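Aggregate trends can hide what the representation actually does to any particular protein. For completeness, the protein is quoted in full, as a sequence line and a line of structure tokens.
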Amino acid sequence: MKYDFDKIIDRHNTGSLKWDVAYNELPMWVADMDFETAPEIIDALKKRVEHGVFGYSILPKEWEDAYITWWRDRHNFEIEPEWLTFCTGVVPAISSIVRKITTPAEKVLIQTPVYNIFFNSILNNGRNVIESELVYDGKDYHIDFEDLEEKLADPQTNLMILCNPHNPVGKIWDKDTLSKIGELCYKHNVVVLSDEIHCDITDPDSNYVPFASVSDICKNNSITCVAPTKAFNIAGLQTAAVVIPNKNLHHKVWRGLNTDEVAEPNAFAVAATVAAFNEGGEWLNELKRYITDNKAYVREFIERELPMLNLTPSKATYLLWLDCSNVTDDATVFADQIREYNGLYLSAGRQFGECGKCFLRLNTACPRSVLEDGMNRFKDALLAIGSNKQ
């Protein structure tokens, strides 16, 4: 490999959300990688810093060109410049869109278990969550389209937040599935907000499908949030984009983002984005192979050492979704016990929806030696704690 993903970087005392823990603890929870970002991005940022002036920024044409070229070449989707709006992050965009597209007390549909911050963006803005739970068959997940349509048909449901690819279950939705979702939402006058921030972290033999690329129905009834931040580990630079082909929807969201003052780039957002999309492809290709190998290591470890657990198949993201139902009825308690026992810090599944109460989420985006430490801690803790099923 050209790039060194085995390098250990001490992130303590750097103001890191993930690593603001005791020195004996190993955080493998939040979706934050422990790899240095691509050297090409670091070089671009160094060049920007050396300029020495960090005033108000605008969005040059090279910013939109970087998005357009990346999605055309990587994802076979042609984005028009007028569809793009800058935002400081996918989560600020989602919250702003919830406020602009829906009114207080209306319902926003999500497919649980799902990224926990969706709940915050809905509930904190005075809207109601309506869940269409994904069906778990003991191994994998699929959509209950009958339940989905029933909830989309509720006159109070006006927005659906789609997670594509899906966090935490690591599923890439295929074109037929996305098309069906699009048709049902169009039928019941529900706008689709597609969070596609994890789209570039897929197994090398797998590709995600942009929701808006599926059909004219999907394109004209959707809002898509994208960013380089997850794939290139630059979330702290606060840079993202919202893609909206429909002119009326675009204007509404543009107004909302500007009203909420989350549509202005900082001095480093453009340089990092352009470098990521224009120069970071080789780094990302190697990263994807490394993460895929890490996920395979975890799968083999569990099959060999922890057969009482079930690992959901994952083709996307660097997060793994662990079914612990054979050893616990409450993974929140279980996660706390593990952390107290030897410092391994995992995400408890209940925060992703009540249907995740027996699951844990594990972040594999770290050097292999760190992952090996984490899995050995997991095994030791599980053997020491044993089952706490009632």
Remarks:
- The mean pLDDT is 97.
- The first helix runs from residue 39 to 51.
- The first strand starts at residue 26 and ends at 27.
